[in-house]
Automatic annotation (TrEMBL):
<dbReference type="InterPro" id="IPR002347">
    <property type="entry name" value="SDR_fam"/>
</dbReference>
<dbReference type="InterPro" id="IPR036291">
    <property type="entry name" value="NAD(P)-bd_dom_sf"/>
</dbReference>
<comment type="similarity">
    <text>Belongs to the short-chain dehydrogenases/reductases (SDR) family.</text>
</comment>
<dbReference type="Pfam" id="PF13561">
    <property type="entry name" value="adh_short_C2"/>
</dbReference>
<protein>
    <submittedName>
        <fullName>Oxidoreductase</fullName>
    </submittedName>
</protein>
<dbReference type="InterPro" id="IPR050259">
    <property type="entry name" value="SDR"/>
</dbReference>
Length: 259
């Protein structure tokens, strides 16, 4: 299927590795003009090399922290009128809520709720004027099924979800959709660190915990980030114009609920 995205401008945040990189890869394969943003220049350039080898198109790179006003300004200067915005940021650390300070909560909200909202605010009116826009927020399956040690993430990402639910109904008539992608256990560095924390909290070996989490998933495995990237690209496609305000769970069937 041709997603109809050739020549579209895409800004992908936290795209030096993991799910952000996979999303940028998929959009580059659809012949988008992609700008990838991440904090670490060396890792960012390695990601650009990988994308160029796979997709035949090298994304532009911006070394910036989009959780800061300065970082967002730098990203938007490199891609001032994106047709596609993929919001993504590293999740806050796991832990016990009793030990979190106000500053911990503010950092989580800045990274996983307020920064995406600021980027949406900076780009959505231009999308409306051009009558094409796709915004995908990479959140977490914890929005549907909260994880006890990820309280900072549960709270901040749920706040973003509530905001999007209202805005997405106002923009879709202008061919601008806003959706959230909720990843489960994908084979990323973030998953490795979370499983290490989970193993420590349970007093179990990491290898034992990893094997158990895989067994508990109906798919019997972790997700491949490229599967996630392909789903992101579809939500950005011309064919997805009637999908908005949705929380698309991609977790191998781990969530047991009907709704």
């Amino acid at each position: 299927m041709n997603f109809g995205l050739e020549g579209r401008r895409a800004l992908v945040c936290a795209a030096s590795k993991g799910l952000g990189k996979a999303s940028a890869m998929a959009l580059a394969e659809e012949r988008c003009d992609v700008v990838i943003v991440a904090r670490t220049p060396a890792t960012l350039e390695e990601a650009a090399d990988d994308i160029e080898r796979q997709a035949g198109r090298r994304p532009r790179t911006v070394a910036a922290d989009v959780t800061t006003p300065e970082g967002r300004a730098k990203a938007l200067a490199a891609c001032p009128d994106p047709d596609i915005l993929v919001n993504n940021a590293a999740g806050p650390p796991p832990g016990d809520f009793r030990k979190w300070s106000r500053e911990d909560w503010i950092r989580a909200l800045d990274a996983n709720m307020l920064s995406p909202i600021e980027l949406i605010k900076a780009t959505v009116d231009g999308m409306i004027a051009r009558r094409f826009g796709r915004i995908v927020n990479i959140t977490s399956h914890a929005v549907k099924e909260p994880i006890d040690i990820l309280g900072l993430s549960n709270g901040a990402r749920s706040g973003l979800t509530g905001f999007v639910a209202g805005l997405a109904r106002k923009t879709v008539a202008h061919n601008v959709t806003i959706n959230n992608l909720l990843p489960g256990t994908f084979d990323t560095d973030r998953l490795k660190s979370n499983l290490a924390a989970l193993a420590a909290s349970r007093g179990r070996a990491v290898d034992e915990t990893v094997a158990q989490v895989k067994r508990d998933n109906p798919a019997g495995r972790f997700g491949d980030p490229l599967e996630f990237g392909s789903t992101c690209a579809f939500l950005c496609s011309v064919q997805a114009a009637y999908i908005t305000g949705q929380n698309v769970l991609i977790d191998g069937g781990a969530y047991r609920g009907t709704f």
